[in-house]
Amino acid sequence: MGGVLALRLTMSSSMRVPARLPILALAAALLIGCTPVVNQRGYLPDPVAEASIDVGKDTQTTIQEKLGDPSTRSTFNGSAWYYISSVQKQIAFFDPVVESRSILEVHFDKAGKVDNLRHFGLKDGHVVAFETRETPTRGRTLTFLQQLLNATPGAPISGSGGMGGERNPGGGNGP
Q: Rounded to whole angstroms, how far apart are CA atoms 55 and 107?
């Protein structure tokens, strides 16, 4: 009788281990899924190359050799080059969060030589509020069906305010 009880206890405790395995695997998968993903984007800062820039001596060509192509250039006269880098962290499906951002501005004079170097960070940025209103346009807004019928030759749009005597290009008897 003691052997049957020992067999039942052994089977009962061995049955619990496989039942815990999927739960432990699920917990591990959830923890791995919540691991943050860190992305370095843009220019990779090189402090040695930046320190080697001589203001007043280096030209656009030498800056391009030292730092590479800029992320962007100033819009109007191209007298400033910007090297932009940012580090973003994203956890699971949430929106990414910008951890840091650095901008190196290399400003050139009219002769094409380095005039000034400036560094900007995340704290130097400004939030820009975009306007969501739309500018009203003159004229009539056509529905999809009206546009479809207007594209068919000979099918006039009812109520269109066309000029008097104008004929439909398809040859129909439109207004």
A: 10
pLDDT for 5 equals 46
Q: How deeply is 35 buried, as exposed, middle or buried, from its count of CB atoms within 10 A (0-12, 13-18, 19+)?
A: exposed
Distances (CA, A) of 35 to 72, 91, 132, 159: 33, 6, 36, 61
The answer to whether position 158 is within a domain reads no
User: In Å, what is the CA distance from 88 to each residue of 45, 46, 85, 129, 151?
Assistant: 15, 19, 10, 22, 49
pTM assigned to the model: 0.58
- Name the band, by pLDDT with cuts 50, 70 and 90, for residue 83: very high
Q: Which domain holds residue 54?
A: 35-133
Number of domains in the chain: 1
* CA–CA separation, 85 and 42 (whole Å): 5
Does 65 have pLDDT greater than 90?
yes
- Is the per-residue pLDDT at 2 higher than 80? no
Q: Is 169 domain-assigned?
A: no
The runs of H, that is alpha helices, within 34-54 are 47-51
